[in-house]
Amino acid sequence: MASTFAPFLLKGKTAIVTGAGSGINLAFSSLLLSRGCNVVFADLGLRPEAKAITDKYSGFSSGPRAIFQKTDVTDWTQLSKMFEVAEKEFGGTDLVCPGAGIFEPNWSNFWHPPGSSESKDSIEGGRYASLDINVTHPIRVSQLAISAFLSHQASGRASRENPKRIVMISSVAGEGASLLVPIYCASKHAIIGFTRSLAALDEKFGIRVNACCPGIIKTPLWTDNPDKMKYVDQKKDVWATPEEVAEAMLKLVEDEDMVGGTILEVGHEQTRIVPMLNNPGPKGAAISVSGTPGLIDGVFESLSEEGWGKPQ
């Protein structure tokens, strides 16, 4: 059935990528630009390497262009603004990647509840920042993307003849479980379930929603956070690169066999389609880390202390 769809050719199209200021999303944005696709870089800021890319592609009168749109992904007004910018500058949107995410930082962490000294989640707030960023933001962006795709934007209404794409970023954590990062695992399981639930949009409207599940990827999400680097045994564990994930995401966008609802696991020099049922689990290089047993003991020790979870 996939052969009845028009191919999705990136040249001349426009993408919105959240979290494009660094890491996987920067690598994906750079790859899209190299294929002739305009990119709206939506992030709170740009690392120097991202600034160099946007500067390189910002002044072109012809060919692909990059635009930085400062965006707090927890603010729905700012999420809407991304699409307004894409419409104004490029005539609409063809590809959306709500890729911004966080790895259960101490300031929004299950083991540092609201009201504890390290948490920034308000005890009266009724929400966790980790879930706002990792789950609520991609869900809301998907609603906005589908609305844009089905409108009569200059780039054309979505159809089998004019396909559109949404690419999510889950994680191998979405296939398993970890006592260390339970909110993160829950959020990434949510992205897999959400992606599979939108699979039928592909056949009906030409809107393909897929997700990748990266393993251990060498990005600032890890390397800039000493508390996360404790999980890694530098002598034993293998990293994959952001560029490897970006290539897998491109495959989800372009390959006609990657039908709606496909989940693609990404390790070092390997990819694997994740089945909905009877999944044997992640396997291969750059899929897991070795430094967790002692850290789990630390969680148990904190729970043994008097007053855990009570506001300080």
Automatic annotation (TrEMBL):
The keyword NADP applies. One of its GO terms (cellular component) is cytoplasm. Keywords: NADP, Oxidoreductase. The keyword Oxidoreductase applies. Gene3D superfamilies: NAD(P)-binding Rossmann-like Domain. GO terms for molecular function: oxidoreductase activity, acting on the CH-OH group of donors, NAD or NADP as acceptor. InterPro entries: NAD(P)-bd_dom_sf (IPR036291), Sc_DH/Rdtase_CS (IPR020904), SDR_fam (IPR002347). Belongs to the short-chain dehydrogenases/reductases (SDR) family. PANTHER family: 15-HYDROXYPROSTAGLANDIN DEHYDROGENASE [NAD(+)]. This is NAD(P)-binding protein. It comes from Aureobasidium pullulans.
